[in-house]
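Tip: read the tokens left to right.
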């Protein structure tokens, strides 16, 4: 959801959609932005759908379900990414070795300092609880159509926020699914770095993610016998 076409995040999303098209990928966008934003994203080549859910997780599942519904026989993988990841689409074709791939950033140095600390803490907590060292705090997930079912079947057990892309991975690991990683040389968008510097909102978001996810992952691991 962007306030308008001049929103710096909307401009990065626009680049993401254009780059995806250049690399032969199709994009589904679930959006609550004003119509003018929907229009520019659509003109850039995305299938833009109104968000019909009430939670972040419902929006994610709507996007995955819509992508799966329009997938052709040749399109065997779906990538779930935040729209503000324009350079990430360049790595997608290298991420089909596993049923579920968690991309690993080669470096976090381009990220805001607070975010670096928070995400390192989250990833280390995930490693301790699951015995899997994955860059889980990097949002993209790439999965086969079969792997998509773990995300689509998630019941929103833990508030249905960021847990919607974490708990399905925990369940897939326990189920013995091939969950792996690929290293990507991703750089944080410069516009976001500038706009979010010293942002109170982003401080609360990063701490809120840890507060939501670490207890949720711990409880799920206990329930699954990890």
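Filled-in amino acids:
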């Amino acid at each position: 959801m962007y306030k308008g076409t001049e929103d710096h995040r909307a401009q990065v999303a626009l680049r993401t959609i254009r780059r995806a098209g250049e690399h032969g990928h199709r994009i589904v966008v679930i959006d609550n932005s004003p119509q003018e934003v929907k229009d520019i994203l659509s003109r850039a080549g995305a299938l833009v759908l109104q968000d019909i859910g009430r939670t972040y997780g419902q929006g994610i599942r709507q996007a995955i379900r819509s992508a799966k519904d329009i997938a052709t026989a040749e399109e065997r993988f779906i990538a779930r990414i935040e729209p503000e990841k324009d350079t990430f689409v360049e790595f997608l074709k290298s991420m089909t070795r596993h049923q579920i791939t968690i991309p690993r950033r080669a470096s976090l140095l381009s990220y805001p300092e607070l975010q670096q600390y928070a995400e390192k803490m989250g990833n280390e907590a995930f490693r301790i609880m699951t015995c899997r060292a994955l860059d889980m705090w990097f949002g993209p997930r790439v999965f086969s159509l079969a792997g998509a079912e773990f995300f689509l079947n998630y019941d929103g057990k833990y508030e249905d926020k960021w847990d919607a892309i974490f708990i399905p991975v925990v369940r897939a690991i326990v189920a013995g699914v091939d969950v792996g990683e690929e290293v990507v040389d991703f750089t944080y968008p410069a516009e976001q770095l500038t706009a979010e510097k010293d942002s109170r909102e982003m401080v609360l978001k990063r701490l809120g993610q840890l507060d939501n996810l670490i207890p949720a992952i711990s409880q799920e691991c206990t329930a699954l016998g990890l």
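The beta strands are 28-31, 47-50, 77-80, 100-105, 141-144, 179-184. The chain has a mean pLDDT of 93.
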